[in-house]
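stage 2 :: seqdesign
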């Protein structure tokens, strides 16, 4: 393993870190988590048991990624963002006993390649955030987000489209969207955006 782990970070023996990955101070990587190459795990970030991350992902400081989340390549998780894993969270069962691991079923958030989750956003599992989508800071995502969608608010709703550069697209003709930074052109049909 050619990864860098700072002294105060906790990385489980069974976790797998790809070459060039850096785990900063006070971060915790749990058992059987798999991180791809060249990932950056910020100070105080948490990666749950069995979480899978692709290459070149960034978890900013204090981001919380609970199992069984799956992140594609190039995913950005902003500071203090949370990917949840419990649809019906309770500390105790209906009879008042403390719930244990076998008392609930973890559900995950899936993040597509190149997508970004803004600072302090919350993704409430189960759901999927599509490739290259952008979740605004502070948003609460409660349903699937299409590829290239820009979502914001509580609950999050689509307010536009973004391209691979993360810049909001402009409508150049009906159903045709252009990236002002890269000049890439995208087509929209029935609420789905695809790159030409």
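stage 2 :: out
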């Amino acid at each position: 393993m050619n990864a860098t782990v700072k002294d105060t970070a906790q990385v489980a023996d069974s976790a797998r870190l790809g070459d060039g990955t850096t785990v900063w101070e006070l971060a915790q990587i749990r058992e059987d988590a798999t991180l791809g190459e060249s990932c950056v795990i910020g100070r105080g970030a948490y990666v749950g048991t069995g979480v899978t991350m692709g290459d070149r992902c960034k978890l900013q400081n204090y981001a919380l990624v609970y199992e069984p989340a799956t992140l594609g390549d190039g995913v950005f998780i902003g500071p203090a963002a949370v990917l949840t894993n419990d649809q019906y969270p309770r500390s105790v069962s209906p009879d008042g006993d403390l719930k244990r691991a076998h008392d609930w079923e973890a559900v995950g958030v899936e993040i597509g390649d190149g997508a970004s989750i803004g600072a302090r956003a919350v993704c409430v599992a189960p759901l999927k955030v599509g490739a290259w989508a952008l979740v605004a800071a502070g948003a609460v995502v409660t349903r699937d987000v299409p590829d290239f969608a820009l979502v914001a608010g509580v609950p999050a709703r689509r307010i536009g489209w973004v391209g691979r550069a993360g810049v909001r697209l402009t409508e150049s003709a009906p159903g045709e969207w252009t990236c002002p930074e890269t000049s890439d052109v995208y087509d929209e049909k029935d609420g789905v955006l695809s790159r030409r």
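stage 3 :: structure notes
- The chain is about 0% helix and 35% strand.
- The mean pLDDT is 96.
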